[in-house]
Fold:
Amino acid sequence: WSERQAVNAAATIQHCLHWLEELGWIGNFDHASTGGRFERSGPQFSDSEVYKLAEAMAWEIGRTGDPALEAQFAELTRRIGAAQHEDGYLNTCYGSPGQRPRYADLEWGHELYCAGHLLQAAVARLRNHGEDDFTAIARRVADHVCDTFGPGGIERICGHAEIEAALAEFARATGEARYLEQARLFIERHGRKTLKENGLYYQDDVPVRDAEVLRGHAVRALYLAAGAVDVAVETGDTELLDAVRAQWDRTVARRTHLTGGMGSQYADEAFGRDFALGPDRAYSESCAGVAAVMTAWRLLLATGDARYGDMIERIAWNVLSGAVAPDGRSFFYANPLHQRTADPEPPREGALAHLSAGGRRGHWFEVSCCPTNLARTFAQFAVYTATADDRGVQIHQFTPCTVDTEIDGARFALTVETAYPEEGSVTVRVDANDGGRRREVALRVPAWAEDARLVHPDGSVTEIEPGTAAAGVTEAFAPGDEFRLEFSVAPRWTLPDPRVDAVRGCAAVEQGPLVLCAESIDLPGGDLDCLTVDTAAAPVVRDGRVWVAARVHDRADGWPYGPARPDDEGKDDGEPTELPLLPFRLRDTRGAAAMRVWLPAA
Amino acid sequence: WSERQAVNAAATIQHCLHWLEELGWIGNFDHASTGGRFERSGPQFSDSEVYKLAEAMAWEIGRTGDPALEAQFAELTRRIGAAQHEDGYLNTCYGSPGQRPRYADLEWGHELYCAGHLLQAAVARLRNHGEDDFTAIARRVADHVCDTFGPGGIERICGHAEIEAALAEFARATGEARYLEQARLFIERHGRKTLKENGLYYQDDVPVRDAEVLRGHAVRALYLAAGAVDVAVETGDTELLDAVRAQWDRTVARRTHLTGGMGSQYADEAFGRDFALGPDRAYSESCAGVAAVMTAWRLLLATGDARYGDMIERIAWNVLSGAVAPDGRSFFYANPLHQRTADPEPPREGALAHLSAGGRRGHWFEVSCCPTNLARTFAQFAVYTATADDRGVQIHQFTPCTVDTEIDGARFALTVETAYPEEGSVTVRVDANDGGRRREVALRVPAWAEDARLVHPDGSVTEIEPGTAAAGVTEAFAPGDEFRLEFSVAPRWTLPDPRVDAVRGCAAVEQGPLVLCAESIDLPGGDLDCLTVDTAAAPVVRDGRVWVAARVHDRADGWPYGPARPDDEGKDDGEPTELPLLPFRLRDTRGAAAMRVWLPAA
Structure:
């Protein structure tokens, strides 16, 4: 993940800054600060893109302390702050001369949504720097929101959830109970039908604590769930927490793609119905991946259940990591698991990519929510990697890193070394353990991990029972003590639940946390639609790639439904071949290709 | 089909008239006729709904001569005509004070689209009645279109095809070559990118004669194809005809559902990519069914190939017939083959149904194109039933009817008797054959028909080779001569081409021309998602229903992808049961139910 972070810093953040300037979305703040009429650029929620970029910058500054980035952040702060109204209101799309009045369109106005992203950027700044002009702007915004939407004010919600988690996090970061209470009010107001029509789309159909599953617009649903967990944890509301956990469980069991992608439906960018998980029309929006990680992370913190860490890993490696090109400058908005045709690349500059333009990454979008959302997520990835409590340290994601913390005032520091996911070995070395106290270091054991074992500091080995979610060593560690978690990352066949109709009769290959896919580039002259694979033969690793045994069939066109299959389904016909696979996240990095994750089984 | 026509006359046409009045879509013509400003009702293309209803009325008047309907038609004619401008222009949405100017928005304005439907209604009137005030209005519209869009005029197209087929048909009905030439110009202009962006959506991406498949918005694509066939036939342009035939063939082989439904994608109401045919998100719009019948019919007339008749039959019995409730007063806009949940019925009055509201028929829609489109199609269904040429008569669709025609000035009349599709027996009795000349009576033999045979007037029997598209008797018939086509309509298992990923491992049951489905009502306490069927056992008919052997499985939730299937896929587990099926067209007639056509095979 540090490579991804380096690309994020060197390329993605500056790429976003370039586009936001180019399109005038930052310039909107300059115009708004004049107090006069102006022609505004971008969609009504474009302010949020600027804030998400600010959040990415704040985390990145915390990571490296880059002074050039700090200067850019300060300049952005100045320009944003200049547009703030006297009473704290801050949005370049409403309330200025010639614009619609504030809060006239809670359904689609995105004002509280934008405010929420500003607060999340301020949380990042507080965690990485402390109070400054940026966080002062955010405080005034948060106070304005509480003044306006508190009891006796506008007792409604925003059509796009985001303010809920943001206020709760900002309350945590500032210690201001008023913000948490406002977050709680927004959570409770959902499902009270204070918005016009279409309640399911923005989760205004059923109160959060009464809902049974995540539904409607996926990003909205997941941001709301994240905020609900924050409120539940901070207020001790176990009923609310249990409700979100149950919604999450059903969503994972019935509305989630193998990649961890959520939101199966292009129409409304929404969660589809249970088991409606077609791979070729899977929307699986990148931002829904970001939002799902946010929700899973909060559930992990709330419960300690490592299975939430599994889901973060799955989404991070397969949805998020692949949503941005290796060079950090182009992005998938949607992440379907089956791309039927090899499509041309969208234009690099000038034209904005259509979100559903096909299987190629775009450089910017009309609704360009994913580039900045990915940038802020990668910049803060360290947050998702490890936690500490009074017992010790928990390692949730496997990446080379150092953990340097204080527990009860005593320093405890670790170095994690791993070539994961290429290798299934994670070594933890204790660098400091002040006072030589007994500490526990626990590592998540992925649910799919076979043959997992712990090699203790003394060289003894513990086999880990399958199904164990986390394994740890508790010792009065001395600096230099080392132990190792090992498990198999050999490629493996994965089959779907029979209720996932769209991939019945197919199999996919996973390798460690990576979902693999086939690209037509590797089947010259062949057609991925005319392929069957032999799942009786295990996938093999050769020359750094994973290979499966396959057959390519001749298939003639005609009325495609009839009394018997056109051929004997690949059992004994077709041309035998070996098909190399590649990680789903690396699709579309070698040129135009058709692609599929789920391979028809012979 | 005569029952369907009776319901159409008694219920659907009056239902449409009621809604068009209620919503003010007819009233728009009254307002426009004043020449002043008015607040217009309905979407920009609502005039076309009035014209499609007029077309239905014209055909229905031709069928029964109902004087009450004739009076309604005359009144509608008066109100429409009053809104016509001096120069022939007629559209209530543009060109009046306070409205946008004419033809300012060819992409979305639908002006030529509306004009096209007016012309098609006039064609119906000419065929069933002759010249009158209505056809005079239409002539002025057609002349205005030619004046405005001819060479040197606005050399562009309408964003919604329809004017092409309408002008060609109107040319045929009036003998006016100018209209055909204008139709030809519109066809040739498609694909020249005279519309802004989004060319694929409205088939402005590639010239008609260069395209390889039907694509973009399905109704637009099919109306355009119908117009192209008209132009090709009337101008002797075999290259254009062959191009459309090839597009149709690929569309049928790769972009058509088992029901004959076309347009697999909710987004853009569009044709999906090849083999992207998920049953649960199949859009399969009712109007695309109407348009596909129009196209197939023209191809049948152009080529004589009975396989086009097969497709008309498939669409008519499964998409069109089921798109309207048995009482003729509620409609499916989309016709997916899998409805995952039992949804509540939309409100009967007042609120307009959302087109994708789920698996229940709605009474009217915001974009309410299907009720009037279905009404006009059922009213003219006789047209699709039989044709005559100088050899004799061709029966394309099997329904009790009489055919009374003149060939070379000599009367030739038949009566067709059949209980089809309940029974696979079609009896033709000759009622008149002036001069006792040798005539051929040919009947389509459906491609799926097994054991087909002809019982000749003399009682002799000819077995029909499988794959024979049409079978006929040529004799110097005498009145009273009778012969019979017989074939099996026993229910049969149907399997998909392996490239139709979304239904891999499933089977469907067809019975004659009917696609059958399962509804959850018939599986009390069971879940259609947890079912497997035994395709080794033939479906049986008992108590007037079709039954298949099935098993109901227990399936637990959890992460739905893993190393082995949760159970042994129904081979020897699960509760055995018998599942009754019903025709797809009769789904949602017994209350809320989940439904599926494709059944997972054990």
Remarks:
- Chain A touches chain B through 61 residues (CB under 8 Å).
